[in-house]
Design a protein that fits this description.
Elements (H helix, E strand, L loop, with lengths): L2 H25 L2 H16 L7 H34 L16 H7 L3 H12 L4 H8 L3 H19 L5 H9 L15
Helix pairs in contact: 1-2, 1-3, 2-3, 4-7, 5-7, 6-7
């Protein structure tokens, strides 16, 4: 067995579940996650190369991220063109409106692809802003903006509806029955 084939087999055996979790966090669908992992492995090992197992996993993850973003772009284009192809009697499929069970999964699905990719890379992959910018090929300021927007959106969708400022104001307010400080005596 060739070295690249052994590397692929070892990667699939040892890190297959982690790759699947990463793909699931990106796309939010179990079947699509399987497809994303399989396609990334095929693309990474279609031609024999000289990659160590550590390099191979990073390369496969990068392919998965690029394929996810490319797929979102092409679906967005198709949604704009689709009504033109189907004509006026086109009725959108109601199955797309099915509510998902997990709150986090639903909240991640409501983020833009870039926000979602940045959030997954930051909080799941534990990459720094500079590393995320390098992986996505954009500026650090853009990554910070995407992360801020994603954090704010996730807080709205998953939180109890109060913002951080409101929480601080309520936390600073004295509770009922708490002892109030006496005003300073005037001289």
């Amino acid at each position: 067995m060739a070295a690249w084939a052994q590397t692929m087999a070892a990667l699939a055996d040892r890190r297959g579940a982690a790759l699947k979790r990463y793909a699931f966090l990106l796309c939010g669908d179990d079947a699509e996650a399987d497809d994303l992992v399989q396609e990334a492995l095929v693309r990474a090992f279609a031609r024999p190369g000289r990659r160590t197992q550590d390099e191979a996993e990073g390369y496969v993850r990068r392919i998965m991220l690029n394929r996810f973003l490319d797929g979102k772009r092409s679906r967005r284009v198709w949604r704009r063109v689709s009504p033109l192809v189907h004509g006026k009697d086109y009725v959108p499929d109601a199955s797309a409106q099915v509510v998902v069970n997990a709150d986090v999964r639903a909240a991640l699905a409501r983020l833009s692809p870039r926000q979602r990719a940045c959030a997954v890379l930051r909080y799941y992959e534990d990459l720094t802003v500079a590393q995320i910018a390098a992986q996505l090929g954009c500026r650090e300021g853009s990554v910070k903006r995407y992360l801020s927007e994603a954090h704010q959106r996730l807080a709205e969708l998953l939180g109890d509806g109060e913002t951080a400022d409101e929480g601080r104001t309520e936390a600073a307010a004295p509770t009922a029955g708490a002892r109030q400080p006496r005003p300073a005596a005037r001289k």
